[in-house]
Amino acid sequence: MIAEYRPVQPTPTAIVSRSLILGQQSTILRMVARQARCEAVRVYHLWVDSRRRFPWTRLARIACGASDGTETKRDHIRERSREAILSGKLPVGTSYRSWGGPSHGTICAVCDRKILPRELEYEIEFEKNNGHVAPPMFHLHITCFQAWEYQRRLMR
């Protein structure tokens, strides 16, 4: 004959002690969750601050703007883009079409350096009948494009 299973009823003392243990554990878990949220907010604000202070990130400098291994300063790139606009090499108007992607080894229209195949480039295209005599498509490093865009907006 098989014995019938009967669950053991906990005593009131056991229920109270188990309740206290669960309460302590939930308090600890709430404290850990609060600390994790505070840390996540702190890390997020550090990231936001770094994006505000350093918008020309290391990745952009390495991948886009430093073909020969030297970092070109932002003011120098802006000066070169201003010179390209004033000399008529680059137009001031808005582009007809633009897109970015891996380089094909072309020369940057702002800094006159080769955009290496491992770097990213930005291609901008203009309409042929906008009064501009240069070719309607230009290849730029990403940082050079940012500088050209900045100077273009200043000169409007």
Write up this protein.
The chain is mainly alpha-helical. The chain has two domains: 11-53; 58-155, no CATH class. It is built from four helices and three strands. It has helices at 12-53, 58-65, 74-86, 142-155, and strands at 97-102, 120-125, 137-141. It has a three-stranded antiparallel β-sheet with strand order 1-2-3. The longest helix has 42 residues, at 12-53. It is elongated. The N and C termini lie far apart (97 Å). Residues 67-71 have low confidence and may be disordered.
Short description:
This protein is mostly helical and 156 residues long. It contains 4 helices and 3 strands, in the order H-H-H-E-E-E-H. A 3-stranded antiparallel beta sheet has the order 1-2-3.
DSSP strand content: 5-15%
Number of helices: 4
Approximate helicity band: 40-55%
- Average pLDDT confidence is 78
Summing up helix and strand content along with how strands pair, one would put the structural category as mainly alpha
Q: What would you call the shape?
A: elongated
Q: How many β-strands, per DSSP?
A: 3
What characterizes the major β-sheet? 3 strands, antiparallel
Low-confidence stretches: 67-71
Number of domains: 2
What's the order of the H and E elements?
Answer: HHHEEEH
User: Strands across the major sheet, in which order?
Assistant: 1-2-3
Quote the distance from N terminus to C terminus.
97 Å
What is the CA-atom radius of gyration, in angstroms?
31 Å
Supply database-style keywords.
3-stranded antiparallel beta sheet; 2 domains; 156 residues; 4 helices; single chain; elongated; mainly alpha
